[in-house]
């Protein structure tokens, strides 16, 4: 009985990772290279040993089955995750309503908004505009002098270019004979803004320069100096002096930078046209310019906060640039 039991036990050869030598039935006194799971002293004990061994095999198969199940579960989980990512791109993309909601800024400490992460392109363009607004106007630099001359040629293409110090500059809306004294806080970027306006939207530029729209005041705002003030107002409104814009208008401007490298200059043109419309609506005069500029900022901030605005062209006031 004991010998038959041992043969059955050793028939498996490899149990639980351990190798067993084949048993020779002719010599019961021979020993195994490694002990079995039970004692061979009695048939009862041999039966217990066979039962324990069979339990071990079942455990091994069960363990292997669980491993296979876990493996396939992992594969299906990965597939589901990939499908979920694909669906998210379609449904929650940056252009969708959900995508716009998910990309909204969060409220940080002190009530400041935390802008969403910026792309490398947005970071680069933000650095560029911040660098531009930090450059002061320097009348001794040839580059800045040439920019003033370019502005004159764009404003008055049929007229002769005057010296950099001349009474003729007052016709453009400079306060004195030397335009370089009017820049102050506006910096060189305000001259760049005027040049961009004249080149990109020439009809709108000429209408404002020559005050062609509406019934004008007897004491009008000076065109060029008003442009400098608008540049300064815009930089403040968009929070460009801080490390990263954290106002509603500033964060919306960051979104514009993704698609429009000249977003600041385009907003400048819209703000200028918007300011003139406010001027006419209020029937304002020279002494009320600051009040009109404040109203312009409020209106522009309101439009930048609209939910359906995702580009410069979505702003309601953008149409003012093409008014006939």
From TrEMBL:
Which domain of life, per UniProt?
Eukaryota
Query: In what residue span(s) does the ELMO domain sit?
Result: 143-304
Q: Where is the signal peptide?
A: none
PROSITE patterns per the UniProt record, alphabetical: ELMO
Which residue ranges does the record annotate as region Disordered?
21-50
InterPro entries for this protein: ELMO_dom, ELMO_domain-containing
Alphabetized PANTHER family for the sequence: CED-12 (PTHR12771:SF56), ENGULFMENT AND CELL MOTILITY (PTHR12771)
* Protein name according to UniProt: ELMO domain-containing protein
Q: Which organism is it from?
A: Brassica campestris (Field mustard)
């Amino acid at each position: 009985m004991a010998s038959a039991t041992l043969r059955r036990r050793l028939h498996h050869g490899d149990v639980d990772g351990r190798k067993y030598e084949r048993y020779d039935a002719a010599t019961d006194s021979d020993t195994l290279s490694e002990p079995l799971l039970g004692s061979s002293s009695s048939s009862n004990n041999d039966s217990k040993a066979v039962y324990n061994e069979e339990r071990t095999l079942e455990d091994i198969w069960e363990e292997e089955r669980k491993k296979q199940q876990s493996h396939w579960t992992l594969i299906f989980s990965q597939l589901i995750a990939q499908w979920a990512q694909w669906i998210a791109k379609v449904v929650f993309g940056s252009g969708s309503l959900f995508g716009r909601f998910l990309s909204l800024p969060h409220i940080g400490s002190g009530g400041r908004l935390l802008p969403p992460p910026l792309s490398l392109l947005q970071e680069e363009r933000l650095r560029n505009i911040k660098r531009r607004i930090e450059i002061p106007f320097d009348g001794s630099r040839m580059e800045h002098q040439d920019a003033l001359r370019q502005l004159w040629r764009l404003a008055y293409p049929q007229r002769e270019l005057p010296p950099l110090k001349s009474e003729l500059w007052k016709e453009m809306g400079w306060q004195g004979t030397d335009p370089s004294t009017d820049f102050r806080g506006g910096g060189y970027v305000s001259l760049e803004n005027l040049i961009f306006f004249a080149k990109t939207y020439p009809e709108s530029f000429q209408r404002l320069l020559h005050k062609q729209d509406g019934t004008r005041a007897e004491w009008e705002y000076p065109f060029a100096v008003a442009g400098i003030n608008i540049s300064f107002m815009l930089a403040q409104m968009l929070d460009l002096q801080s490390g990263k814009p954290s106002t509603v208008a500033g964060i919306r401007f960051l979104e514009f930078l993704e698609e429009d490298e000249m977003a600041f200059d385009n907003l400048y043109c819209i703000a200028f046209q918007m300011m003139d419309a406010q001027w006419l609506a209020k029937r304002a005069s020279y002494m009320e310019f600051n009040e009109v500029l404040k109203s312009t900022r409020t209106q522009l901030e309101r439009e930048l906060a609209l939910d359906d605005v995702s580009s410069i062209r979505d702003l309601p006031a953008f149409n003012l640039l093409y008014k006939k």
